[in-house]
Sequence to fold (584 residues):
Amino acid sequence: MKVSQGCIAVWALLSAVGGYASSATDSEDPSASTSTSTNDNINPRVPPGCSLVMAPSSIPNSGWGVFSMVDSKVGDPIIAGDLVIQVADLNVTHASDMRRIVYDYAWNAAETGGQYEGINVLSVIPGIGMLANGASEEGILPVLEPSVDEAGVTRHKSPGAGAFTHYFNYTFHFNKPLVAGNEILVNYGPGYFQMRNNQMANEKEEDEEEGAKQPQLLHRSLESLHETGFCLDNLKPGKSTIEHAGRGAFASRGQAKGSVVAPVPVLPITKREAMDVTRKKQVSKKEFAETTTKQLLTNYCYGHPKSSVLLFPYSPMVNLINHSSKRSNVRLQWSSKSQPTLEHLQDINKKPTASTDGLLLELVATEDIQEGEEVLLDYGPEWQAAWEKHVKQWEPYPFEYAPGYVLDEAVPVLGTQEEVQGSKPYPPNLLTSCFYPYVHPETKPSEGEDDEKNDPTRNITSAEWRHMPGIFELRNLRPCTIMQRYEVEKDKDSSSGDSEDPSNFYYTVVIRNRYGLAPQERILPGQMHVVTRVPRRAIRFTDKVYTTDQHLQNAFRKEIGLSDELFRNWMDLDGKSDSEEKDL
Ligand SMILES: *[C@@H]1O[C@H](CO)[C@@H](O)[C@H](O)[C@H]1NC(C)=O
Ligand SMILES: *[C@@H]1O[C@H](CO)[C@@H](O)[C@H](O)[C@H]1NC(C)=O
Ligand SMILES: *[C@@H]1O[C@H](CO)[C@@H](O)[C@H](O)[C@H]1NC(C)=O
Ligand SMILES: *[C@@H]1O[C@H](CO)[C@@H](O)[C@H](O)[C@H]1NC(C)=O
Fold:
């Protein structure tokens, strides 16, 4: 059982979704479903040199676990970094149909820098972030942030814009040495997320308490891992060779035809409407336009036109695999003979203990694959048709736009608010943000906002920016307005005297609020908090809410199609999923 991330951004949503129905005690024992041929010496699932495997966890009733096959040092990456998919403003009406993902697997988006993607944002982190079991202390730490970029696919040039996530390379590193055969545990607990607010700490699940009591070094013999495991590092990330596709997955070692390239455990979303997002946009003073789009997560799910079910694959790198009907070199097959019924899939979202046994696919090579070759899957005829239609209809974005990370590189020395309003405006989708952990001086924020507005002595506070451990965690990033820029007093020798050198300047800023802050982190109405001596490296351009490519109205949305054969248990619709074809 994975431990809930119990995060700030999600708590409001979760209370709307409600808890799991309490009942059922079926245990999650994946070993039952792994009895496919392991003595097959042509297709070993754990090839020589494999450094990481998925196998039944050494913690009882904990489903799958991730194990190191080699000794590892502190600071080594566990595996290449994976994607982060930001789920903004989940559809509350249907969120209970993906409760397993939300409750047991999603992370607080402020941990991955996704907090500006919406009002309530969850980060789905496939790979180590979902597959490894949790321990509340001394686990593996992720890097502080994923890389963010468009992979060369821009809204001005490519119909692929907004069709894949910009957050990638989210890498987990070892924070203590491991011996071959050790199970890898990720630290999900409040010990790591020190800034997490108390409210959430109180809501932490019982599982977490249990996790804390687990011995820290859990082990399986290498023989048993060879027997029951699946190799996790046959794939590595890279830039796709397919036009408009962005990133892709590549073979990190040669694969013989018929071998299992990757295990693909999946979690169910039992109603595809859970992906629908309706948003009201103000078009004039009185008028609002309603738009409906689909979550970006849709594009990473498996589905079938005759089914209401979507399946989200969550093992490392598999979400990077792109489509080709002609050049595909892998296919999916179920690992076990029988799949759960539709009712059982629904139970998985109703009961925390409902088993996910049987929800394991294998990605199998359909031909010999060379090391370094791109791994491509046929997403099916519906996907192909939808993509062709999209490319035909697509029009480039007509307005000025630059993402935050581009401006950060382009603008080493920042203008003040006054300068920016004048001659040098930044693109309208951007705001400046500062790394600054503000906590309201009072323990309990008062509700009497009017009184505070009228108290002249309390409305401006100020502080000097100071470097402290953890200050560059993404959760500390909040909007700030730059009021003043001044030169750093340095001794003459060390100063470069270069007016473009960012380290020559400090800034005075006014700190502002963003969505998803805890009450004690909010600047109260009528209050102003000024921070002086802020260095450039503590200031970033960030994209305003709903402005990044994943929110584009004309972004491509379509789930990956699985065959009738693979989906046969869950065909509950007549097949005309008209919501798919709706013109936006
Ligand atoms: C991914 O992150 C690692 C550090 O965790 C870094 O060394 C590497 O350059 C990054 N790769 C990309 C493509 O950003
Ligand atoms: C590449 O894969 C991603 C994720 O599955 C998908 O969103 C995107 O549309 C794909 N692009 C192409 C051109 O296949
Ligand atoms: C949730 O989905 C339904 C059905 O697709 C849609 O009508 C509704 O507007 C959505 N709600 C939100 C908040 O997006
Ligand atoms: C501070 O309080 C005074 C008196 O109530 C008010 O006039 C002023 O606008 C307040 N300043 C700010 C920045 O809110």
Summary: Residues 9-383+557-583 form one domain. Residues 133 and 185 are 5 Å apart (CA to CA). The chain has a mean pLDDT of 82.
